[in-house]
Amino acid sequence: MTRITRWIAVTVLAALLPTAAMAATSADALAAASPEAIVRGVSKDVLDIISANDKDQAKQHQLADARLTPLADFTRMTALAVGRYWRTATPEQQAALTTQFRTMLVRTWLSVLSNHKDAQVDVKGARAGDTPDEQSVHSVVNQAGQNPISLDLMFEQTAAGWKVYDISVEGISFINSHRNQFGTVIRSDGIDGLIKQLSASNAKAASAR
């Protein structure tokens, strides 16, 4: 995944955070929403929210973190990104990895919003996944001066409703891209080494913010 397509990927994921209007609805309403309805309902409004808080990175982070919680399955995302090493991690290591991966994702999404504030998401429709509990929503991301980008968001149905667990840009999985990077670190420094690297990176970014 190139740097530009990765920026598009994380920006669109950030655009899919629940809006203030959706956050105000009941948990039952959110759980009942279809993947396509989720994407259609939130893609524009949150970009507007982020734009309105362009000068306040702390507020951006606070809003993004709070609104990501009901949408993404961070545990599954982290497990997929860590790959086969997830099974050998202790519960404590898994929890630490999930926390640091979540923080990294939110930080990354926010760091590129200023470069893609004018992106528009054209939702084309949903299709069934490999199992009845999975769906993918196909969209095209349009931005002035750039070629359209094909985007697929993978959802799984849980007891709490549909959750995003991966995103694919031009056929390249965001999770798979991280799996390759994480695998290299784990083979060199172990799972604790990856946790340490993610923690240090997140701490450095938080200090700068």
TrEMBL record:
InterPro entries named in the record: MlaC/ttg2D, Tgt2/MlaC_sf
Superkingdom of origin:
Bacteria
Q: Does the keyword Metal-binding apply?
A: no
Q: Which UniProt keywords apply?
A: Signal
Pfam families, per the entry: MlaC (PF05494)
Span of the secretion signal?
1-23
What is the name attached to this protein's record?
A: Putative phospholipid-binding protein MlaC
**Source organism (scientific name):** Amantichitinum ursilacus
